[in-house]
């Protein structure tokens, strides 16, 4: 006898696979029809230091990696307080602070 849960798992796997195929097909179509669809819209390039800093500020509010990604052990960070400070203010507010101080 077949277990109904086995059928559900197989059906879910099939749906996930179909969704992945559909997504990759959409991306392929976008690349063919719009060759610049995944390029940055602004002057700041993907590997720019400014972009990395902005990402750090934006992500500071939501996560702090205090574990080594390879070993999984906790890291002692000297910069945790700075990271927490960055997370206190939203990225838009940081932008306003920087612009205000530059002008």
TrEMBL record:
One of its GO terms (biological process) is positive regulation of synaptic transmission, cholinergic. InterPro entries: NALCN (IPR028823). Residues 17-27 have a biased composition (Basic and acidic residues). The keyword Oxidoreductase does not apply. The chain crosses the membrane at residues 82-102. GO terms for molecular function: monoatomic cation channel activity. Residues 1-27 are annotated as: Disordered. The keyword Membrane applies. GO terms for cellular component: plasma membrane. Signal peptide: none annotated. Keywords: Membrane, Transmembrane, Transmembrane helix. This is Sodium leak channel non-selective protein. It comes from Aceria tosichella (wheat curl mite). The lineage of its organism: Eukaryota, Metazoa, Ecdysozoa, Arthropoda, Chelicerata. The gene is NALCN_3.
